[in-house]
Amino acid sequence: MKVNEIFFSLQGEGKWTGLPNVFIRTAGCNLRCSYCDTKYAYFNGKEMRVDDILKKIRNYPCKYLCITGGEPLLQKDIHELIEKAGGINIAQVAGEGYPTLTLEEVIAANPQVIIANVEEYEGGDISFQFIFDEPRLGGLDALVNGRVYGINADLTNQPIPRIVDGLELMAKMIHPELFGSVE
Ligand code: SF4
């Protein structure tokens, strides 16, 4: 798996706050959270064998391990790592990482509505703009019918209470006849 860094520190979040932890930061992330403080992990990292990672983390004098990112679920052997570290990967049934479609698959599917994340930082609308800039997408029904929407990524990227706002907004984008149009 591709690892950005392995380090020893105090946990700063959640139930184990303040306790010594070994952190494995995986490399690579296809999300772009507006509050991200680990942009350096988007691309940089080196491939490491799971056994070598385990050898390294066993040298640290603590019993807590935190696998962070980047986006750890993008790593195809994350399940093996979690199991070998004595954990249970509750995301295993969801498959590996995030599904990715080729342009050809998108064109064949011909979506009626396209909703793309838009973030507040400079360049945070790159996915949204791509839909308009890519000539091969020009014939999609969603573009022809003016049904391409940008949505604030903060409303959709995390399973927290404000995701309900994102859900309402998306319902309006997909079914304006039922929920009213987006303002
Ligand atoms: S998931 Fe983590 S690494 Fe990826 S953009 Fe969000 S905060 Fe940054």
Helix and strand topology:
Elements (H helix, E strand, L loop, with lengths): L1 E9 L9 E7 L19 E2 L2 H8 L7 E4 L9 H7 L18 H7 L4 E5 L7 H8 L7 H4 L3 E5 L10 H12 L1 H4 L4
Parallel strand pairs: 2-4, 5-6
Antiparallel strand pairs: 1-2, 1-3
The structure holds iron/sulfur cluster.
Q: What keyword list fits this structure?
A:
183 residues; alpha/beta; TIM Barrel; Rossmann fold; 2 domains; four-stranded mixed beta sheet; two-stranded parallel sheet; 7 helices; 6 strands; elongated; binds iron/sulfur cluster
Commentary on this structure:
- By secondary structure, the protein is of the alpha/beta class.
- It folds into 2 domains: about 1-90, Aldolase class I (TIM Barrel); about 100-183, Rossmann fold, CATH 3.40.50.
- Helices cover about 25% and strands about 15% of the residues.
- It is built from 7 helices and 6 strands.
- A 4-stranded mixed sheet has the order 3-1-2-4, covered by helices on one side. Strands 5-6 form a two-stranded parallel ribbon.
- Bound molecules: iron/sulfur cluster.
Integer tally of domains = 2
Q: Mind telling me the CATH class of the largest domain?
A: Alpha Beta
Question: Please, what is the average pLDDT?
Answer: 84
Q: What is the CATH topology descriptor of the largest domain? A: TIM Barrel
Give me the side-by-side strand order of the main sheet.
3-1-2-4
Overall number of strands: 6
Shape: elongated
Bound ions, cofactors and other small molecules, one mention each: iron/sulfur cluster
Strand content: 15-25%
Order of helices and strands: EEEHEHHEHHEHH
Looking at the overall shape, the CATH architecture of the largest domain is Alpha-Beta Barrel
Ranges where pLDDT stays below 50 over 5 or more residues in a row are none
- What radius of gyration results from the CA coordinates? 20 Å
By CATH's scheme, which homologous superfamily of the largest domain applies?
Aldolase class I
Distance between the termini: 44 Å
The class by helix and strand makeup works out as alpha/beta
Describe the largest sheet.
Answer: 4 strands, mixed
**Percentage of residues assigned to helices:** 25-40%
